Amino acid sequence: DAKTTQPPSMDCAEGRAANLPCNHSTISGNEYVYWYRQIHSQGPQYIIHGLKNNETNEMASLIITEDRKSSTLILPHATLRDTAVYYCIVAYSGGGADGLTFGKGTHLIIQP
Amino acid sequence: EPEVTQTPSHQVTQMGQEVILRCVPISNHLYFYWYRQILGQKVEFLVSFYNNEISEKSEIFDDQFSVERPDGSNFTLKIRSTKLEDSAMYFCAIWDIYPGELFFGEGSRLTVL
Hints:
The complex is a heterodimer.
Chain A: E1 9-13, E2 18-23, E3 32-38, E4 45-50, E5 55-56, E6 61-64, E7 70-75, E8 84-91, E9 106-111
Chain B: E1 4-7, E2 10-13, E3 19-25, E4 31-37, E5 44-50, E6 53-57, E7 65-68, E8 75-79, E9 88-95, E10 103-104, E11 108-112
Parallel strand pairs in B: 2-11
Antiparallel strand pairs in B: 1-3, 3-8, 4-5, 4-9, 5-6, 7-8, 9-10, 9-11
């Protein structure tokens, strides 16, 4: 799996959009970008994934650059409950034999 | 959305004791996994289980660890002789091709004294 680079921590004001960047300059053509988050010591939770096109679901939006070397996860209206560690993972599939490899992620702190 | 229930939520044990952590998915799935997270560190892959046998394992998963799915529902992780450094959160996860994402349980916290 290609490696990713994320800032270790970010702050965002409650009610504002939280934009979390991820660099994955060595991504291969058929590798997906996955985002998970972990709230305190709970199990990681899937947020969204994409290959080339931008994606949106009820939790977030994923913007992938045209060269696919970086992406941004957008939480449109952050709440205090969005305080968590956010993981950007690049992988050929979301699971399979190898599962997913988690890095250190970005600790997003939503400020009241 | 699949549910994964883990028991116990917290177990305290003495060094050298055997521990069994249990995971109960509510339905059958393609892959089952165990991950662990030492306090303040990354979530680490331990093992994947497919078609009732180990598919892949990490270097962490040494001879002290074993997994099985004895009755087609429970998925267990056994640590034969616990060490202090086994203290961690242990997460069970499941995966299917569709919808394609990992679903994690809430974890079992193991404290080895």
